[in-house]
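With this grant's support, we have settled on a layout for protein records. One resulting record is reproduced below.
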Amino acid sequence: MTHVFAAGDQYLDSDVVFGVKDSLIREFASMPTGTAVDGREMTQPYYHLNYDFGLKAASEARRSGERTA
């Protein structure tokens, strides 16, 4: 799964594909105007999230019964 859900979102409990898992729910940090992490100048406040995705090898995913692309 390559989707992160915003903590506190009103639709977390009504996900029709049941993809919401606690490990994928994260707090997005509210950031002020100014220079963003990537160096861009932000003229409006914005939200920021750092999240590391881990990828499984296709052979490992098949062994665990997960769908591979």
About this structure: Strands lie at 5-6, 25-26, 29-31, 34-35, 41-42, 46-48. The chain has one helix and six strands. The first helix runs from residue 58 to 63.
